[in-house]
Amino acid sequence: MKLFTYKQADGVDEAIKAASTKTISKFIGGGTNLVDLMRENIEQPDTVIDVTHLPLTDVEELEDGSIKIGSLVRNSHLAANKIIREKFPVLSQAILNGASGQLRNMATTGGNIMQRTRCYYFYDETACCNKRNPGSGCDAIDGYNRIHAILGTSFTCIATHPSDMCVAMAMLGAKIIVEGKNGEREIAFTDFHKLPGDTPNIETVLQQGELITSVVIPPQDFTKNSLYRKVRDRASYAFALVSVAAALEVENGSIKNVRIALGGVAHKPWRAFKAENYLMNKEVTEENFMLAAEEELKDAKGFEHNSFKIGLAKRTMVSVLKELV
Amino acid sequence: MDSIIGKPIDRKDGPLKVTGKAMYAAEWNIPNLAYGITIQSTITKGHINNIDTSAAEKLKGVLGVMTYKNAMQLHTLSGSDPSSGKFAEKDLLPFQSERIFYNGQHIAVVIAETFEVAEHAASLIKVTYNEEKPVFDINQPEAKIYQPQQGLGGTQVQVKRGDAEQGMSNASTKIEQTYNTPVYHHNPMEPHATSAVWNGDTLTVYDATQSVFGNKNAISTMLGIAPDKVRLISPFIGGGFGSKGFMWANSILAPMAAKFINRPVKIVLERTGQMFTCAGRRSFTIQKINLGTDNGGKLTSVKHETTSETSFVDEFVEPAGVATKMIYATPNLDITQNIVRLNKGTPCPTRAPGEAVGTYAFEVAMDELAEKLNIDPVQLRLINYAEKNPDDGHRFSSKNLKECYEKGAQSIGWSNRNIKPGSTKEGNFLVGYGMATATYPANRSKATVRLKLYQEGNAVAACCTQDIGTGTYTVMAQVMSDALGLPIDKVEFKLGDTIYPQGPNSGGSQTMATTGPAVRAAALTVKSKVIKLAVADKKSPLYNQTEDAISVDEGKLFVTSDNLKGETYSQILTRAKMPLVETEITTNVSTRETQKSESNPTTKQGGEQGGQGQQSGGQQGGSKDESKDNPFVKQDQDLDRSNVAFHSFGAQFVKVLVDPLTCMIKVDKVVSIMDVGQILNEKTAKSQIMGGAIFGIGMALMEGSVYDENTGRIVTRDLADYLVPVHADMPTFDVQFTNVKDEFISPVGARGAGEIGITGITAAIANAIYNATGKRVRDLPITPDKLIV
Ligand SMILES: Cc1cc2nc3c(=O)[nH]c(=O)nc-3n(C[C@H](O)[C@H](O)[C@H](O)COP(=O)(O)OP(=O)(O)OC[C@H]3O[C@@H](n4cnc5c(N)ncnc54)[C@H](O)[C@@H]3O)c2cc1C
Ligand code: SF4
Prior knowledge:
By secondary structure, chain A is of the alpha+beta class. Helices cover 30% and strands 20% of the residues of chain A. The relative contact order of chain A is 0.13. Chain B is of the alpha+beta class. Helix content of chain B is 24%, strand content 24%. The N and C termini of chain B lie far apart (62 Å). Residues 26-34, 36, 51, 71, 75, 98-99, 103, 106-108, 110-112, 114-115, 162-165, 211-212, 239 of chain A line the site of flavin-adenine dinucleotide.
């Protein structure tokens, strides 16, 4: 670990100001990801800005029925929140499917969104990794890539975004509110994380110095009927091989509303727009669910150890949709 | 008198552990302690060109950087017996040359005032290498496969009986399959750790080890100092699972570093990386099995060929065929072992070395055979039941395996099993049942115990063996309590320190079976001494009684036929003005096939079994060994064991549920029925067997280390990537024991109840998954992806 300066910010402005310098700075929320990476010399910030004292710890219902979640709401609080459990049970399920109780007690909403990939080679200082060290190559493409992406990969990087919470957020059509020295802006959840392209080191549209202040979930009734399913190698405390968040509304045997997002398959939480479009107004049958899944995964590309994810993603989509009927 | 033997009493050391008072190797509060951090090679084969330590050495708080350039010279230790000291990599004494044999090999120790400074300094060290082309994969053309002579402790690994080829051609039903198991890492909760303190020319080492005596010997030999200059202390061990059976570099690097900076030094291996490269592992295995039977399902021939890996700096064989030679009756047998040298660290014993992976492959093969024969899997095992040890024709000391099958089948609901796989559902899940046989040798060796009974009415026994989390402290206290007739809170058993007389290392599930009889004999000896005092003392109510007319309970000695006539230990010793009565006893019985003839008195004349104090080994001398002509030792050692085979058995039954779409597997219930002799403590014994089943779940469903195909470096290098079972994976456990006292193993009657728990279980799970899904995965672990294709 490199030596660094620690600063505690007491207000949003102070945090933004502290981060808007030339040296490398990092906000720290729960620290469950950042500290690990610093210990392994992967992240080497000069300054660490503690944002846990900022007044961004509430979950509130806005006038229009949207739910605003402060970026410092801990994962365990968010999962246990009554409004969330009633209106968006899928979000609660997704969070509870992630990490462990201890980690969720520490992890913050903002930190969860910004957490970095679990690619083995990204974590190993001695490996070649374009994300960590642009232009150095990617040891995962020809190496062990069982946990890697099948959608939206590039020749430079095939890593996934590992969050469970974000899959539910993307499905729910949430918006991320960020604040920087030029003021506040609002970013659709599905636009926030980027595909790797030629710059896998740039993971989100967040600018240096910008702070995530909250996440807003728009009102919608049909997402009450929603479900999160995570397929993994053990029953708890493992990242998703594939996960699916979905919500479904059926009227007279046909699909009136549907939302689907996938986790563990791409560099970002993957909203399955193609499958959603395919299913709209279609009859509720297992066959249609499978056809929709196939539509979504038409362009999927497997690597030596992860091709199974293509079939698994389809099966998991079908399994979740079936259960929502 | 309600015997304490078998009672599920709580661990005596439980309160110490949960309050943090139990001291582990890295936790001793040592004045002036410095922190050592080791650095590992990042190449897989070659030479260090240079290590530039200058930036690190300049850092404030750094006390020194030890490398091959400045480390002291070590002496070779070539022994291969962990009980007397086995350094894991005999041809790679740390820091003696610039050669690199594997990725992750220790190359430097940075020593600093604090852990943080040491860690930062470690990141400033620059190493350059001359790389050579490594061989780290068995499929590389350079990989050379050969047949080893023998396994650890002289185990036979190439075994032929009858004519396997002929037997196979006479068979009417045959199967041939190959099974693969990956590399496993032990991952004990407590990482390997050593603190070393020099005081002049004497050395105290606090170490995490399954062989306290062995490590003391190894350290003194390697440093080139007399054994009595080294004291090793290891009262608590946070699990080892075999990884702490051999001695690894940290145990010698800490004393070297302490000498180097002339201050006490502590070295703890890091969980990330280091615990996956410098602390052993289980080799992968490739196991080819051929089975042939007659029409009735009787085995006519068995072939089991295993290939495993070792390093370039030592030879360790994972002998997967070891149980195959005795598990069922067959006239023709061919067990072959191959091994390949790779640029990886040296493997070592891991949770039932050989048996765990061997019974997986073999018992799945039996399941495949049962299906082909259209015979119930339990029935197939009964058809091939071995009444005598097929290996040498000897009787078993005690074998009640039929009862295990019966009880297991009943407890799991075997009659619900549909013989047609993939055809039964419970709710949304496919359901399947599977079973397998468990077996493990019943090992016993030599132990010396010193026991003191004090005037205050309490007793303390000591033996330098280990409690690796298994319950030695508690169970030995129960043996003392029973033999002395003292309440459990008046007895104490001490271990884990070389000032005590030598006991067994903790490997091969032998600690309890070996130490128990010595503790018993010592306790009975002391009791007899006190009785002799009493019956000779006119003032005693026991005066003039014969010794065998007297019983003891709750510390009171009384005439068995008249329990009002008696007095306490305390009263007798007080009157005799004796502060204590003591003894030192050695029992030496080997049940291992390879060593039986060397130590057993019946096959060799009288011999040195009395011990005569020559091996008490402790620095404080203590009392003289009183084993010679001791009736309790004689009763044990004079038993003719020459035609007796010592093995434990059991039956594992499993129910699994599989999601037909996502293929996630849930082990729903595990039934383990174990035949391990007399149970000394039902609670600790059950915990051992349950632990074995959990290991089995790990092996079956998730565990396995992966090495990078291009560099040979470990990929799954922390506990986020190397998965072990968690609470949510736990099934319902039903552990039962036949609890039949083994009259041959020892007067205590208990065989080890440890590693047997992990045998058979992986196969039972795999067989249940097949029964649920109709898919036979022969490549562990059975993850969802393998069921989808
Ligand atoms: C062993 C293990 C298992 C895990 N398993 C799972 C799992 O199964 N599923 C899952 O989803 N997750 C899992 N996680 C990841 C866990 O969810 C994340 O570590 C956690 O959500 C990160 O939150 P944090 O507040 O601790 O972030 P920190 O570590 O504090 O920060 C992470 C990143 O976010 C940035 N950041 C923090 N707050 C803000 C903000 N307000 N604005 C802008 N940037 C910010 C930081 O600068 C840093 O770059 C696991 C983690 C571990 C260690
Ligand atoms: S997949 Fe991405 S994160 Fe992983 S090694 Fe390649 S570039 Fe790095």
